[in-house]
Specification:
It is built from 19 helices and four strands. The chain has helices at about 15-45, 45-50, 60-85, 85-90, 90-100, 105-115, 120-130, 130-150, 155-180, 210, 215-225, 240, 250-280, 290-310, 310-330, 340-380, 385-410, 410-425, 430-455; strands at about 5, 195, 200-205, 230. β2 and β3 form a beta hairpin. The longest helix is centred in the last third of the chain and has 38 residues, at about 340-380. The radius of gyration is 22 Å and the shape is globular.
Length: about 450
């Protein structure tokens, strides 16, 4: 048996947790976090790259650029459906290693493709789709970490993993504009391109947007292989996990997590282009990274708050705040000949990003509690063996639901940017899309209250 495979794991037993469970769980968590951060960085790299392509000679239309920004979201969300079930089949250590190493393909591919303005558009589309490897990783990463921690600390653990992992979105939007201004890799990185706009020219190494992640991906892949563990108690076939498709709460939580994480990743992908289209005198790359940064840090705080107050209560109030923040965004947009207020627009979006972060954590705090409680209710009074098996089954179902809900929610990375584009094309502004988002948040408030947060709710959590 492999020395990396742990055959006995009882995090809900205090003596086991304090003696060796906590240290092992934390080691796996702290390797998982940088792996997930890099996955998000690769997934969202096109949100920065597309802004610069026209200025270095790529003759793509605005609509083609929107497609390049949106396609990683589409492929990443689709891959998450499959990644959701991989950890119980392959093991967390093995799958984290494989999925992290896969990020090398789009990172290196982008580095070479952007050096030639004659690179075909279909090639760029393929590279955008391959960046979905980064989006897929979230589902398996969250499922894996959920197995290691007891119910009382799942909010903290999942909040740390996802929150610090989500920082990859902010990191890519902060780091890439810096590294493309210098020949970081010398002759190995290729020649500079000439960036030209409004009569101004300068040298740019856009290939660094891909190459800069390669050494970090290699180091993290090795760390995952030698530093993480597989849990025997987490093993399950696809058929065993597929029971979640019969669970009502799986589909309800898909809807709610679409409202939180779908909003976070969709707003992150579309924020630079939305700023550029509505406030053309503002450099979007000076501000774009701040939204995902606020959302990621809020997720860390949201996990702790949800452990204290309960996930459902936090989720309920978070959706109300998000709906009001979108109303604020609409108020400060340019409209009817007025210039709007970028300052007001920006701060309303920061509030919105903060809401998505807190909501990401609170909904993921709800899921393990819901499915563990369901199993424990069914096993109550049937003896110690049945109650122990209920914990194992509840953790397996919760892990599958964490992955699957994240898959559904990730489609926000595609639909939100495309909704902006469609709304602008049909009405001249993004307001129609934003009003639709408000309507969606209202449904999330109603679902959270009725099923989870009201007195006498079916599943208080």
């Amino acid at each position: 048996m492999s020395r990396y495979l742990i055959s006995h794991w009882e995090p809900e037993t205090p003596s086991f947790w304090l003696s060796k469970g906590r240290s092992t769980a934390n080691r796996n968590l702290w390797i998982s976090i940088p792996a997930l951060l890099l996955a998000f960085a690769v997934w969202m790299v096109w949100s920065v790259v597309v802004v610069n392509l026209p200025n270095i000679g790529f003759k793509y239309s605005t609509n083609q650029l929107f497609w390049l920004a949106a396609l990683p979201g589409l492929s990443g969300a689709t891959l998450r459906i499959f990644y959701s079930f991989m950890v119980p089949i392959f093991g967390g250590r093995k799958w984290t290693t494989i999925s992290t190493a896969s990020l090398l393909i789009p990172a290196i591919g982008i580095g070479y493709a952007v050096q030639d303005p004659e690179t075909s558009y279909p090639t760029m589309l393929i590279l955008a789709l391959l960046c979905g490897f980064g989006g897929g990783n979230f589902a398996s990463s969250m499922a894996n970490i959920s197995f290691f921690f007891p119910k009382s600390q799942k909010g903290y653990a999942l909040g740390m993993n996802a929150g610090l992992g989500n920082l990859g979105v902010s990191v890519v939007q902060f780091v890439v504009p810096l590294v493309i201004t210098a020949g970081v890799f010398g002759g190995l990185g290729g020649e500079a391109q000439v960036w030209s706009s409004g009569g101004m020219t300068k040298e740019m190494w856009l290939q660094n947007a891909g190459f800069v992640w390669v050494p970090f991906i290699l180091v993290t892949t090795v760390a995952a292989w030698y530093g993480m563990n597989d849990l025997a108690s987490a093993n399950a076939s696809f058929a065993e996990q597929a029971v979640i498709f019969k669970r009502k709460h799986n589909w309800l939580m898909c809807w709610l997590y679409l409202g939180t994480f779908g909003s976070f990743i969709g707003y992150s992908a579309g924020f630079p282009l939305l700023i550029k289209s509505q406030f053309p005198n503002v450099n979007p790359l000076q501000y774009a990274f701040l939204g995902p940064l606020v959302g990621a840090l809020a997720r860390v705080a949201g996990g702790w708050i949800s452990d204290k107050l309960g996930g459902a209560v936090v989720t309920f109030w978070t959706f109300i705040v998000m709906a009001l923040a979108v109303v604020g965004v609409i108020f400060f947009l340019p409209n009817a000949g007025t210039a709007g207020s970028f300052t007001g627009f920006f701060w309303m979006f920061m509030l919105l990003f903060a809401g998505t972060g807190v909501g990401n954590a609170s909904t993921f705090r709800m899921i393990p509690v819901i499915f563990l409680t369901e199993q424990q209710r069914a096993a109550a009074g049937k003896g110690a063996a049945a109650e122990a098996q209920a914990i194992t089954n509840g953790n397996k179902e919760a892990a599958a639901v964490l992955g699957f809900t994240s898959a559904v929610a990730a489609y926000g990375a595609f639909f939100i940017p495309k909704s902006y584009g469609t709304s602008i094309a049909l009405t001249g502004g993004p307001e129609a899309a934003l009003w639709c988002f408000i309507g969606f948040y209202v449904t999330c408030v109603a679902i959270t209250w009725w099923f989870y947060s009201r007195k006498g709710a079916d599943m208080p959590c």
